[in-house]
Amino acid sequence: MDTTSESESSLRTRLRQQEVVAELGQRALDAGDIDRLMREATTAVAETLGTEYCGVIELLSDEEEGVLRQGVGWRDGVVGTATVSADPDSQAGVALRTDEPVVVEDHRAETRFSAPGLLRGHDAVSGICVGVGSSEGPWGVLGAYAAERREFDAHEVEFVRSVADVLGSAIARTERERALREAGRRDEARKRALEESERRYRTLVEQFPNGAVALVDDDLRYRTVGGTPLDVAGVTAEEVRDRPVGEILPPNLADELVPRYEAALDGTEDTFEIELGERIYQFRVVPVRDNAGDVFAALGMSQDITEREEVQRKLEASERRHRTLVENFPNGSVGLFDENLEYTAVGGQLLDTLDVDPEDRIGRSITELHPEDLLEDIEPYFRAALDGEASTFDVEYRGRYLHARTLPVRNADGEVDAGMLVVQDDTERRRYERRLEQYREYTNRILDAIDDVFYVLDADGNLQRWNRSVCEVTGYSDAEIASMHALDVFAEDQQETIANAIAEVLETGSTQEEAEILTKDGERVPYEFVASKLDDPDGDPVVVGVGRDITRQKERERALEESEAKFRMLTENLEEMVWISDPGTRDVLYLNPAYEEIYGRDREPIYDDPATFLEAVHPEDRRRVETAYDEIPEEGIDEEFRIVRPDGEIRWLDARAGVVRNEGEERIVGIAEDVTERVERERKLEESERRYRTLVEDFPDGAVALFDEDLRYTAAGGQLLKEDDIDPEDRIGASIRELYPDDLVEQVEPYFRAALDGEASTFETEYAGWNLFNRTLPVRNADDEVYAGMLVVRNVTKRREYERKLEESNERLEQFAYAASHDLQEPLRMVSSYLRLLERRYEDALDEDGEEFLEFAVDGADRMREMIEGLLQYSRVDTRGNPFEAVELDAVFENVRRDLQMKISESDADITAERLPRVYGDRSQLKQVLQNLLANAIDYSGDDPPRAHVSAERDGEEWVVSVRDEGIGIDPADADRVFEVFQSLHAPDEHSGTGIGLALCERIVERHGGRIWVESEPGEGATFSFTLPTVASASDD
After folding, report:
1. Are 122 and 143 in contact (CB under 8 A)?
2. Does one domain contain both 366 and 476?
3. With 80 as the cut, is the pLDDT of residue 851 above it?
């Protein structure tokens, strides 16, 4: 199908190209504006080939350069001004000097010549360039160019050359016509010069041949008249002389002559033609000058040119055969032949296709050129053309299908003096039509293969097309159906329904209807019809539809009605609950007695209020069941849920429900089965699968394996095996005694045995250069009996190395703490002691400033001592911390409240907390975190009594603990800086503190593997949150 589509697309493209050439050829004959023809040609080429640019370049007089005369796609201002090189080494120059097109697939890679600046400036990549006119006398070039690289096929190249030929022919014709006009003007000039040289001698002519001559003075009176004026005005020369021009002549002639005489007296000559009676006269009015060149009179001459016009008409008729040759020129060839059936003129691109030289045809008759069998077919048409009769016929010639037309060529008298043969190459169209007919036959075979009836109706309901099934079902022949209306195949009581359906589909676009077809034998067959509105190729609306035999469906519906009684009998005795309800109102239409047995409730209230059945649904399942029942999809629902019987017993139900349609009505039909025992069995089945879930749920970054009572591995896996290039399959079936050295077996076997005895264990081993953290645990079945063991291994080599480095760091930090506690505290205590001694001893000797200075010094020393103590606490978080254990945060919170009781009472603070979780950590350090955060909440409460609330929320394997206050708040820009050591956002006189409390909190939280952050806005309070590991996650580590 893809190859066929491509072929059909190619045929359509070529047909379009041929149509464009033919249309441009016709316009070339009619067009007087050559630039307009060039614009139309370049637009047509660009659109047909899909190129961005197309232009006609006219060769300038020096033949070394051309100008872009017309084109499409170029930037504004380029057409008419841009020049292109036409020297022999350029692309345009090559096209001008050869009869072959120049095709460039990529100017960037072209080596024959460089791309013109015009193309480079427009990013043109590929193109076709064809000379306009012959290589001996070139006029210019026609070029089509694409902005992307592409390959032009032979048909596209030939198409551009054909358009160039049309332009060349039009330009040549235009130039010939211009030359004729120039010759005419030269002849007229010579005639005028001759008349002027003889004006003094022939001004008055007694007998002007075939006309009259008159001399008019400046008063517009006739002074001298000669010739035969009676032919013009019906008066004699004597009657005319000295009479005004306007009085003596007929009004229509006077209206033309008087203005021209006036103009001649002003020095302007003029010529015009006028029809008087049945004759045509030419008048010429010229000024008459004296020797000084001054106009002293006007000379008017008239001549009967009726015969000359006739001669001109005959001359035009003599050229008609050439125009006919062009005007009737299709995509093919054309020839003129005489009474001897000899060709007198031949041309056309088809001759190139057939490899025929036109010169070989001229002067030869068809009897010489064609074989006898072909001659017998075509000669009668040639003879008929000479007899004045036009004919069309088809022939096959040299492997091509040709469509030919012979027509008479008449002279000016309407007599046939030659014949014309116009031939079109119909090969591609024939092939296309043949493919189209094959496709039509293929489509018909498909439609005939369908068991359903297929039909197409026009807007009046007449059958336009149908498949074989229509004949088979109705019993009518194709000929009978062709004359039938759609309503004719239905009984009278059905026809109105069908007519309405046809009207509906034409109005809405689609319809669906059931009706009974009335066969030729009178049988009624039920059918369901589906139809849609489409437009035929002419744009007229048609109805396209399919009908399906629903006899069996109707039989099933009848069977369903018969089985309804059986249904009730069956459902009344089923153990499963069965119900039927209306999907619109939700009213329960039927509920079998099994409901009372399963629910332990009376079924009558359900009929009164269907929603009461939800009262028995378990509260945790009620919303889900209600949602599922309210939105039953087309495919139905299948829900398992629990009910609570009046005695408190919980039962599991499996309820399935779906929408059932019958004769246009919808019903919800459902069945509910008590699956309590099945659910219990499934639970046990899930337990039997627990070993696989355990394998996944307890799988750390390392390896995991299952082993049996003989300590043989039954399953194994994990990235640790891959890192050691161990195939898990090599482990399965092997025991630990076979796989590990004796010293390692001696170490680990007790843990393996303990797991089989139901005890979980953790231990570390060294194996293959790795530090491994191991965990053995029992795997139990549904009865909670241990039937296997599991080994979970993590590679902690990197962790142990990190711990070693951490211990070294902690040792250095401990040294610093020791130095701080002794070497720094001792001189600070001495300073503080002496300052206090000065204060006591010299209290009376100090003035007010001295006392203030001494107070500043004492306060500074105290603050320094507090900062050192805080720094000591900060440095000892890791080194002096207690081992982690399960910690009840509720108890920690109560201890903190007791320690802060004095601050709480003094500030009238309200400190509350939700139920806090059990976490894994250092009890004293966690107390310090909570105490620092709550103390800050009290200190930074602002003018209102402090309010703080502690809460916690589970997030995966950690808890998020939050302390929220309603104090002065923190600028978000300082959210990170508040956790830095000695960073206080307030001056000491505003709020006391060393600026190390939050840094200490951060270090403690980080020791617990968590993080701490603050969310706040100035004046809106602050929420400090930190994470701590759950007890379960910590035990997994």
Report:
1. no
2. no
3. no
The answer to whether residue 520 sits within a structural domain is yes
Are the beta carbons of 20 and 48 closer than 8 angstroms? yes
Q: Do 576 and 672 contact (CB within 8 A), yes or no?
A: yes
Residue found by looking up tokens 């029942």 in the block:
629
For residues 666 and 632, is the Cβ–Cβ distance under 8 A? no
Whole-angstrom distance, CA of residue 781 vs CA of residue 691? 8
- Render pLDDT for 128-187 as a digit per residue (tens, 0 to 9): 999 988 767 788 999 999 999 998 998 899 989 999 888 888 888 888 888 888 877 877
If you search the block for the tokens 């970054």, which residue do you land on? 701
- Convert the pLDDT of each residue in 299-334 to its tens digit: 888 888 877 777 667 656 555 655 454 444 556 888
Whose structure tokens read 């096209």?
95
Which range among 144-158, 358-372, 824-838 shows the weakest confidence by mean pLDDT?
824-838
Residue with token string 């619109």: 584
- Total Cβ atoms within 10 A of residue 254: 16
CATH number at residue 277: 3.30.450.20
Residue 715 lies in a domain: yes
**Angle, helices 889-899/923-939, rounded to nearest 10 degrees:** 50
How many domains would you assign to the chain? 7
- The DSSP result for 897-957, as a single string, is HHHTHHHHHHHT-EEEE----EEEE-HHHHHHHHHHHHHHHHHT-TTSPPEEEEEEEEETT
* Tokens 């100017």, located at residue: 107
The verdict on residue 470 lying in a domain is yes
- What are residue 1027's phi and psi, to 5 degrees? -110, 145
Q: Measuring CA to CA, how many Å separate 420 from each of 321, 322, 574?
A: 8, 10, 95
Tell me: do 529 and 584 sit in the same domain: no
Q: What is the CATH number of the domain that holds 927?
A: 3.30.565.10
Q: With contact defined as beta carbons under 8 Å apart, do 659 and 668 qualify?
A: yes
The residue written with tokens 């009620």 in the block is: 622
Q: How far apart are CA 912 and CA 77, in angstroms?
A: 82
How do residues 714-754 score in pLDDT, each as one tens digit? Answer: 888 777 777 777 887 888 889 989 989 999 889 999 999 99
Residues 896 and 1022 grouped into a single domain: yes
* Domain co-membership, 45 together with 152: yes
Same domain, 258 and 228: yes
pTM of the model: 0.30
Nearest Cα neighbor of 284 from 227, 201, 244, 236 is 227
892, pLDDT greater than 90: yes
Cβ–Cβ < 8 Å for 616, 644 = yes
Does the structure show a pLDDT above 60 at 821?
Answer: no
| Those residues with Cβ within 8 angstroms of residue 811's Cβ, 6 or more apart along the chain or in another chain | none
The band of 559, judged by pLDDT with boundaries at 50, 70 and 90, is: confident
Of 1028, 1030, 1023, which Cα lies nearest the Cα of 934? Answer: 1023
If pLDDT is split at 50, 70 and 90, which confidence band does 204 have?
A: very low
Cα→Cα distances 405→83, 298, 803, Å: 45, 58, 103
Q: Please give the Cα distance from 170 to 945 (Å, whole number).
A: 102
In this structure, are 941 and 896 located in the same domain?
Answer: yes
Amino acid 144 reads: A
Instruction: State which amino acid sits at residue 720.
Output: L
Domain that holds residue 544: 450-490+502-552
